[in-house]
Amino acid sequence: MIKRDSTSDALTVTAFFLTLYISTFDLGVVIIFPIVLLMTGILLQYYMLKEPSRAKEKYLRGKQVTNIGYYTILGFAAIFGIGLISPEIEKLPFLSLLKTLSTTPAIAFVSLIAIGEEQVFRGFLTNYLSKRSVFFGIFGSSAIFAAFHLAVYGQSAAALFYVLASGVLFAWLGIRSGRLVVPMLIHLLNNAGVYLLMVVYA
What we know:
By secondary structure, this protein is mostly helical. It has helices at 6-23, 29-48, 62-85, 94-99, 103-129, 134-148, 150-153, 157-177, 181-201.
């Protein structure tokens, strides 16, 4: 079970503030999608999982911080490796949307979308499908995660492989660490990194 903790809750609250911040740039429809995704994830967790599980903690202690750091670094290294296997990722149409934004709102947007997707696909879907089996939870949620990205990436095999492999990685690390914050952090780092590389090499 992938559990919420104070850090994942803080990232979720941050996402709401990012929404307010991004809305000051008059982005209209662009801002609606990630906030709907975020709210959907939170509501599905409460409605379908009844009471989403929460990691027991008073505050993060040394071993817990080390655990989160270890899985985040492991995940970021793995996602970097997946990116090397799928070099066509930089040619995706989704990146053209980000090119229309200046750096600050673009980073805020990719951060918001990462937190929203993790609330839906790991916080809710992986946990929900894992009731049948952990294997089904990881691969079922990852397949749906990849299908969800068809609208953004089209039929690019490299992009879909990247998203599917990322989904498996996020779900596995979430279950392995037992915390939603781990896939959230990896997803945030990945999205910000892709955007910054796009800016540097544009």
